[in-house]
């Protein structure tokens, strides 16, 4: 009984490791529409980062050109500023 449980646990662990280590061939286009393969072909500097989504410990490796990372960072800053400015303007006096 213990031996079969250990074999099942080992099999499950190995299948999970195989699934985690597999590399996908899908390429996502960046903000400017270029795929990582196109960016490499044009000799742009590629930077890969491990992006961890909220609620999970596992990260996803994302590779983009330096210009794409800079644009993403600027877009995030703009969105944050917009939210903060809109909330400050819509806040009225308390009470009635």
Structure description:
The chain has 96 residues and is of the alpha+beta class. It contains 3 helices and 2 strands; from the N terminus they run ααββα. The protein has helices at residues 2-21, 36-41, 66-90, and strands spanning 46-52, 59-65. Strands 1-2 form a two-stranded antiparallel ribbon. A hairpin with a 6-residue loop joins β1 (46-52) and β2 (59-65). The radius of gyration is 22 Å and the shape is flat. Mean pLDDT is 74; it is low at 21-26.
How far apart are the termini?
Answer: 71 Å
Return residue spans where pLDDT drops below 50 for at least 5 consecutive residues: 21-26
Global outline: flat
Helix share of residues? 40-55%
Largest sheet: 2 strands, antiparallel
Strand order of the largest sheet: 1-2
Order of helices and strands: HHEEH
Question: What average pLDDT do the residues reach?
Answer: 74
The percentage of residues in β strands lies in 5-15%
* Class from secondary-structure proportions: alpha+beta
């Amino acid at each position: 009984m213990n031996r079969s449980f250990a074999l099942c646990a080992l099999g499950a662990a190995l299948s999970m490791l195989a699934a985690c280590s597999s590399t996908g061939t899908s390429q996502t286009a960046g903000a400017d529409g270029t795929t990582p393969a196109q960016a490499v072909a044009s000799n742009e500097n590629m930077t890969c980062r491990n992006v961890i989504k909220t609620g999970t410990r596992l990260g996803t490796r994302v590779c983009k050109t330096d210009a794409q990372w800079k644009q993403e960072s600027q877009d995030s800053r703009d969105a944050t500023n917009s939210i903060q400015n809109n909330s400050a303007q819509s806040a009225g006096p308390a009470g009635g």
